[in-house]
Write a structure and sequence with these properties.
Blueprint: E1 5-10, H1 16-28, E2 32-37, H2 47-54, E3 58-59, H3 65-71, H4 73-79, E4 82-88, H5 90-98, H6 104-111, E5 116-120, H7 124-128, H8 130-141, E6 145-146, E7 150-153, E8 159-163, H9 167-181, E9 189-194, E10 199-200, E11 206-207, H10 214-225, E12 229-234, E13 246-249, H11 253-263, E14 268-271, E15 278-280, E16 301-303, H12 307-312, E17 321-328, H13 332-343, E18 347-352, E19 363-364, E20 366-370, E21 373-376, E22 380-381, H14 382-400
Parallel strand pairs: 1-2, 1-4, 2-3, 4-5, 5-6, 9-12, 9-14, 12-13, 14-17, 17-18
Antiparallel strand pairs: 7-8, 10-11, 15-16, 18-20, 19-22, 20-21
Helix pairs in contact: 1-2, 1-9, 4-6, 5-8, 10-14
Bound molecules: ligand PMT.
């Protein structure tokens, strides 16, 4: 499978150093990155550092006979799936708006037939100047996707709008644009949580629950079978790691939260794990002693982080689709509807776990709840539930991202 490919144009702004971080993040997502550096950009980053991080030659000169023969400016733009200008200086934006083509970057942009994502970075007066705002409107109406600069302290000492947007945010927008272009399946990533958590009381005792991981693992497998790039984050279970899937083993809720954060960005998150709501406020470093005839009178508990809510309400890396489960023993659907709203996820599968149902069973009965309403599913094997959910997720991603 061909790797998705980006042409990154780095122009003259102090924010150019951040483009090295952007290249690294795109490379981590297996995206090929080719770079053009303008003369201004070269004042802030060197072709050598850009080439080393992108693992590709960095291009600088329109009239380089060698470069034009090997990879001319037309081919540079045609071979990329997406063109990104980050940072985009006021000067380069003005050239884009007016169709100038007097250097490699502007000539390549004029010759491009691809979507162009532009992340401006400049002094706040330059950004607010009517000429720049006119140019921004012009490139937007020509089809460019502009990522507004952030507000804050600028390198020149002034405060206001003009800082290049957060690199995380730019990377996420690039991935979304690529997903649209490449019809999602090729780089669609999902995170699935599964199993219980164990919250230590002392070195040998813990607070846990009866989750076996069967449901969460089945969902990870079903998504992977559709070609999705899945990371399964699982608490302690008896299950064998599914083949061909990245598996991260954790023990406590805190560890699961860290593993989820390290896995973002993903396009889809499915939280099927039964995470302990509480943990001991001060787990004992030594085994608690049982004194004859004495009960353990007090075990102070504190709340664990809510991972589903954390992912669903993430300010910069919220996946396009966040799915939770709601394990309930009474008023299953009503409680799950409230839980979906409270946590901020898109879909929630209401799971009746009264008696022997749900936990550790081979079958499960769920009701899918979304903003559109509720849809009860019949009692099914956990594999069949996983297959049905995976197909719905794939359809959603095909339509919405
Ligand atoms: O593992 P199995 O034996 O196959 O059983 C499957 C299952 C019953 C565990 C599974 O289908 C299920 O219902 N999982 C959710 C269990 C649960 O913890 O439900 P909850 O209603 O307490 O939590 C609601 C949602 O918030 C869940 O998506 C949960 O992952 C998440 N959560 C809960 C607590 C917390 N601290 N952080 C969370 O993210």
């Amino acid at each position: 499978m061909k790797q998705p490919s980006i042409l990154l144009i780095i122009s003259g702004s102090i924010a150019a150093y951040k483009s090295l971080d952007l290249i690294r993040r795109l490379r981590e997502q297996q995206i090929t990155v080719r770079c053009i550096i303008t003369k201004g950009g070269e004042q802030f980053v060197t072709p050598l550092s850009v080439a080393a991080i992108s693992e590709n030659q960095a291009y600088t000169d329109l009239f380089s006979l060698k470069d034009e023969v090997e990879m001319g400016h037309i081919r540079l733009s045609r071979e990329a799936d997406l063109v990104v200008v980050a940072p985009a200086s006021a000067d380069l934006i003005a050239k884009m708006a007016n169709g100038l083509a007097d250097d490699l970057a502007s000539a390549t942009l004029l010759a491009s037939n691809k979507t162009v994502v532009v992340a401006p970075a400049m002094n706040t007066q330059m950004w607010n100047h009517p000429a720049t705002q006119r140019n921004i409107k012009q490139i937007q109406s020509d089809g460019a996707v502009v990522i507004d600069p952030a507000e804050g302290m600028l390198a020149c000492g002034e405060t206001g709008a003009g800082r290049m947007a957060d690199v995380d945010n730019i990377a996420k927008i690039i991935l979304n644009q690529l997903n649209k272009k490449l019809k999602i399946e090729k780089i669609f990533k999902a995170l699935v949580t599964s199993g219980p958590t164990h919250e230590a009381i002392d070195p040998v005792r813990y607070i846990g629950n009866r989750s076996s991981g069967k449901q969460g693992h089945a969902i990870a497998v079903a998504l992977a079978q559709l070609g999705v790039d899945v990371t399964l984050i699982t608490g302690p279970t008896q299950l064998v790691d599914p083949k061909g899937i990245k598996v991260v083993h954790i023990t406590s809720a805190d560890e699961m939260l860290k593993a989820c954060d390290a896995t973002l960005p993903v396009q889809v998150a499915v939280c099927a794990a039964a995470i302990g709501d509480w943990r001991a406020s001060q787990p004992s470093a030594r085994k608690l002693k049982k004194t004859q005839g004495n009960a353990l009178h007090e075990l102070q508990l504190i709340e664990n982080p809510d991972i589903l809510a954390h992912i669903a309400q993430h300010k910069t890396l919220r996946p396009a689709l966040v799915v939770g489960f709601a394990a309930e023993t009474e008023d299953t659907v009503a409680n799950a509807i409230a839980k979906r709203k409270r946590k901020g996820c898109d879909w929630i599968l209401a799971n009746d776990v009264s008696g022997d149902k749900g936990f550790n069973a081979d079958d499960n009965q769920v009701t899918l709840i979304s903003a559109k309403g509720t849809e009860p599913w019949p009692l099914m094997g956990k594999d069949a539930i996983a297959d049905k959910l995976a197909i719905l997720i794939q359809q959603f991603m095909g339509k919405h991202v």
